[in-house]
Amino acid sequence: MLFLDNLLLLVSMIILIILVLVGVAFLTLLERKVLGYIQIRKGPNKVGFIGIFQPFSDAIKLFTKEQVYPYLSNYNIYYLSPIINLFLALILWFSMPFLTIFFNFNFSLLYILVISSLGVYTIMLAGWSSNSNYSLLGSLRSVAQTISYEVSLALILLSFMFFILSYNIFDFYKFQEMIWFLFLFFPLSLMWVVTCLAETNRTPFDFAEGESELVSGFNVEYSSGGFALIFMAEYSNILFMSMLCSLLFLGGGFNFLFFMKILFMSFLWIWVRGTLPRYRYDKLMMLAWKIYLPISLNFLLFYIGLKLFMMILMF
Predict the structure, then answer these.
(1) Which helix (H) or strand (E) holds 257?
(2) In the chain, where are the structural domains located?
(3) Above 70 in pLDDT, residue 237?
(4) What count of other Cβ atoms lies within 10 Å of the Cβ of residue 148?
(5) What percent of the chain has pLDDT over 70?
(6) Vertex 223: Cα angle to 55 and 233 (nearest 5)
(7) For 263-298, what is each residue's pLDDT tens digit?
(8) How far is CA 254 from CA 19, 94, 198, 250, 261, in A?
(9) Are 286 and 219 contacting, i.e. CB atoms less than 8 angstroms apart?
(10) What is the CB neighbour count within 10 angstroms for residue 39?
(11) Region of residue 215 (left: phi > 0; alpha: psi -120 to 50; beta: else)
């Protein structure tokens, strides 16, 4: 019986990963379409009906191109970094709660923080092992940015966790049956979205890939498959963060509406990219350490006090 249970878990894992990769493919198409319409043009519309097969043709093109690597690069680390990056982005999804349980473990929020912080190392090693000045600068920027915003990410998450007194994501769904946390945690919810934008290295915080300054940032030396893996990891993280936003403060739900919420949050990521110009790097750091850190700490104290007050009232 245990063998069959483990087999079912393995099949569920494989199905989830395949569906996430398909979601990533169509997210890239959505982004190109939305950016196209923001810039008053059509976007991909030739391959298949209204460009529906464009992501697959892009994938075939990228993975069949010749793999080049810098002669002075640290080849093994250079080659493995994108693979590990995508692997970490995909195993993040195992914390996603299902009504059929899946890996619905009790410390899923800690698991998310641990795995997302490991992603920093792959970016750092990808930039360093290329032995290029531009990629090293891009990776250093990215690491500094991600570490800075992980602090506020963890503190904002702590406010949510103190409120529900659990590390399990599934409990967020139970607590939001009557009212969404968006209304109870409105400022923190907005801060969470901005922090997630900085965590996923997206506009207006895409300093790791600042084309105007660093050519293409930490992935400048990557081509074909390596570049595609980094690209897929980034979009997988965007989808995951959208799912997390839907669970944390948009009520969860595990029905059709839940997936509509994920779609809306993903669209928000793209909308921000099409609308806002790139931020200034010193302002990005000031935002993390001088604004978000004290505000999230104050909110943390406030919600701890609120929770204690509610517990006193209950008893």
Answers:
(1) helix 256-275
(2) 66-314
(3) yes
(4) 20
(5) 97
(6) 55
(7) 999 999 999 988 988 888 888 889 999 999 999 999
(8) 16, 15, 27, 12, 10
(9) no
(10) 9
(11) left
C-alpha–C-alpha distance, residues 166 and 130, integer Å? 42
Task: Select from 282, 302, 301 the least CA-distant residue to 291.
Answer: 282
CB atoms < 10 A from the CB of 93, how many?
Answer: 20
pLDDT at 291: 92
**130, 220 contact by CB (below 8 A):** yes
Closest C-alpha among 92, 89, 71, 93 to residue 81: 89
> CA-based angle 282:284:289, to the nearest 5?
95
In this predicted structure, what is the pLDDT of residue 211? 62
Residue 21 CA to residue 13 CA, distance in Å, equals 12
Dmax over CA atoms of the chain, in Å, equals 69
- Distance, CA of 45 to CA of 59 (rounded, Å): 17
Q: pLDDT tens digits, residue range 193-230?
A: 999 998 888 878 877 666 666 666 777 778 888 888 98
The CA–CA distances, whole Å, from 261 to 54, 98, 109, 125, 244 equal: 25, 16, 20, 35, 10
Task: Tell me which residue of 202, 112, 191 sits closest to 152, measured CA to CA.
Answer: 191
DSSP per-residue letters across 148-200: HHHHHHHHHHHHHHHHHT-S-THHHHHHTSSS-HHHHSHHHHHHHHHHHHHHT
Report d(CA 98, CA 91) in Å as an integer. Answer: 15
CB 91 within 8 A of CB 115: yes
Cβ-Cβ contacts under 8 Å for 130 (sequence gap 6 or more): 70, 73, 78, 136, 218, 220, 221, 222
Give 102-144 pLDDT, tens digit per residue: 777 788 889 999 998 898 888 888 888 888 888 888 888 888 8
pLDDT band at 243 (very low <50, low <70, confident <90, very high): very high
How far is the CA of 125 from the CAs of 68, 145, 200, 215, in angstroms? 18, 16, 17, 18
Place of tokens 């043009």: 41
Cα angle at 16 between 10 and 21, to 5 degrees? 130
